[in-house]
């Protein structure tokens, strides 16, 4: 019998508070507004995890902008590791040709999915293509990705909240927290992790 998730008890520690996130998103919005200097920009959100970040970020950007959504998958179900195989589940709904495009991501870890997405979007001939991520986890990087805007660099821990999930849960937490290993690890893995 599996136990019911407890949104708050399942989080071992709060890594980033709601206030820290709000402050940093406002800073990123100001910097993006200055860097694009009044030019229109298209924000491309990578569903589902980046939705809260993009909603807050777009309100912090003082520019003409439009948004579009893509959904890609490189995970399976409740998996905690990327499969490396990337599938586009939902493509852009409008052209980005000759537009300034900013990819908005929730987290970059291995970089495999984002590397694929960047190559795919470059094929659509945008004027510029930049990346903004809330979280960067460089310890897990397998491919180098030039990231233009980083909210926070975090350690190699499994995090949830503010759009990030485990098994489609925990996205609605207002903070970013470290998920307790016993929540996602099998009995052998939990023993190795010391839980």
Q: If you had to describe this structure to a student in words, what would you say it looks like?
A:
The protein has 195 residues and is an alpha/beta fold. The protein has a domain at 19-154: Rossmann fold (3-Layer(aba) Sandwich), CATH 3.40.50. Helix content is 26%, strand content 28%. It is built from 5 helices and 9 strands, in the order E-H-E-H-E-E-E-H-E-E-E-E-H-H. It has a 6-stranded mixed beta sheet with strand order 4-3-2-5-6-7, with helices on both faces. Strand 2 (41-47), helix 2 (51-60) and strand 3 (65-73) form a beta-alpha-beta unit. The longest helix has 19 residues, at 18-36. The radius of gyration is 17 Å and the shape is globular.
Question: Top keywords for this entry?
Answer:
195 residues, alpha/beta, Rossmann fold, disordered C terminus
> Which structural class do the helices and strands define?
alpha/beta
Can you name the CATH architecture of the domain at 19-154?
Answer: 3-Layer(aba) Sandwich
Let me know the number of strands.
9
| Radius of gyration based on Cα positions | 17 Å
What proportion of the residues is helical, as a percent range?
25-40%
Globular, elongated, flat, extended or rod-shaped: what is the shape? globular
Count of alpha and pi helical runs: 5
CATH first level of the domain at 19-154: which class?
Answer: Alpha Beta
Q: Let me know the largest β-sheet.
A: 6 strands, mixed
Main sheet strand line-up: 4-3-2-5-6-7
Distance between the amino and carboxyl termini: 19 Å
pLDDT under 50 segments (min length 5)? 188-195
Q: How much of the residues is beta strand, in percent?
A: 25-35%
Which fold name corresponds to the CATH topology of the domain at 19-154?
Rossmann fold
Mean pLDDT: 89
Q: Tell me the series of helices and strands, N- to C-terminal.
A: EHEHEEEHEEEEHH
């Amino acid at each position: 019998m599996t136990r019911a998730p407890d949104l708050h008890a399942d989080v071992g520690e709060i890594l980033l508070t709601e206030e820290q996130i709000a402050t940093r998103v406002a800073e990123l919005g100001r910097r993006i507004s200055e860097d694009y200097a009044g030019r229109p920009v298209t924000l491309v959100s990578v569903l589902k995890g980046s939705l809260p970040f993009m909603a807050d970020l777009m309100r912090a950007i003082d520019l003409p902008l439009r948004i579009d959504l893509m959904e890609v998958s490189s995970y399976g179900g409740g998996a905690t590791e990327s499969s490396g195989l990337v599938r586009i589940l939902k493509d852009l709904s409008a052209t980005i040709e000759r537009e300034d495009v900013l990819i908005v991501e929730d987290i970059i870890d291995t970089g495999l999915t984002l590397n694929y997405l960047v190559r795919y979007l470059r094929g659509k001939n945008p004027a510029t293509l930049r990346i903004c991520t809330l979280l960067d986890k460089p310890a897990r990087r397998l491919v180098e990705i030039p990231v233009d805007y980083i909210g926070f660099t975090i350690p190699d821990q499994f995090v949830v909240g503010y759009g990030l999930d485990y098994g489609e849960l925990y996205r609605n937490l207002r903070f970013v927290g470290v998920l307790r290993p016993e929540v996602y690890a099998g009995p052998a893995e939990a023993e190795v992790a010391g839980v």
